[in-house]
Amino acid sequence: MSPRRPSAGSAVAGGSRTAVTEDGVKHLRRADPVMRALIDRIGPLDEYARRRGRPTDAYGTLLRAIVGQQLSTKAARTIYERMTGLWGGKTPTPQQLLDTDPEAIRAAGMSRPKVAYLRDLAEHVLDGRLELDRLDELSDDEISAELTAVKGIGQWSADMFLIFFLGRPDVLPVGDLGVRRAAGVVYAMPEMPAPEALFELGEPWRPHRSLASLYLWRSLDNEPQ
After folding, report:
1. Among the listed ranges 14-28, 70-84, 116-130, 197-211, which one has the minimum average pLDDT value?
2. DSSP state for residue 26 in the 8-state scheme
3. How many domains does the chain have?
4. What is the C-alpha to C-alpha distance for residues 85 and 135, in angstroms, rounded to an integer?
5. DSSP-assigned letter for residue 57
6. How much of the chain is in helix, strand and coil states, percent to nearest 5?
7. Inter-residue contact 161 to 147 (CB < 8 Å)
8. Residue whose C-alpha is closest to residue 198's, from 185, 179, 211, 217
9. What's this model's pTM, rounded to 2 decimal places?
10. Domain span at residue 124?
């Protein structure tokens, strides 16, 4: 069977979802006294979660994630806007991106490897290796495996997609420096915890580790890039 080619508007519905739930807050307060104190200090996270959940289509979210790798939020926004200016300020469809001279994309401020990553993402979507409109039917691990098969999308990017786009409730991005740094401060550790230590620390937070991560980020007022 030949792979189904997605339309330009093919997308997983997302972006409006949030890992912030009343049940999640109750669980974290009950399961972890340190997290309870943090929640009481910070208060509701609804507005914060919505601000982080702006993207409305899966492809555009992944495209922007690649553009923003290893850049400040401000720099990522500037380069993304400059790049999308090539297509009238809109996110290009996969075919539009592949039809565009890579050097023109580089001239917008993109590195050669990132241009290659964007093209690999577009190719995965067009040939059906990455079926965006069925991602929400998969488990977190299955989604991560599908996404990380694309060049330039690692586990960190997959975790951010799961938390902020799909609103999956039980994701702990142990590779995120912000979460690790915040955990070290909030839990009064002598040093920033290693990913393995953060994983163990987060066991009581299940099945609401995404919400715990949001509170840890917020504790430093440090949104992930």
Report:
1. 14-28
2. H
3. 1
4. 29
5. S
6. 60, 0, 40
7. yes
8. 179
9. 0.83
10. 58-139
207 in any annotated domain: no
Measured from the Cβ of residue 148, the count of other Cβ atoms closer than 10 Å reads 15
Q: What is the mean pLDDT of the chain?
A: 88
Q: Which residues have a catalytic role annotated? A: 176
Say which CATH number the domain at 92 has: 1.10.340.30
In sequence order, the 6+-apart residues with CB closer than 8 A to the CB of 37 are none
Contact 179, 217 (CB under 8 A): yes
Q: What's the pLDDT tens digit per position in 96-121?
A: 999 999 999 999 999 999 999 999 99
Half-sphere exposure of 223 (CA within 13 A, CB side): 13
| Alpha carbon distance, N-terminus to C-terminus of the chain | 39
Query: CB under 8 Å to 199, separation ≥6 — which residues?
Result: 172, 174
By CB neighbour count within 10 A (0-12 exposed, 13-18 middle, 19+ buried), where does 151 fall?
Answer: middle
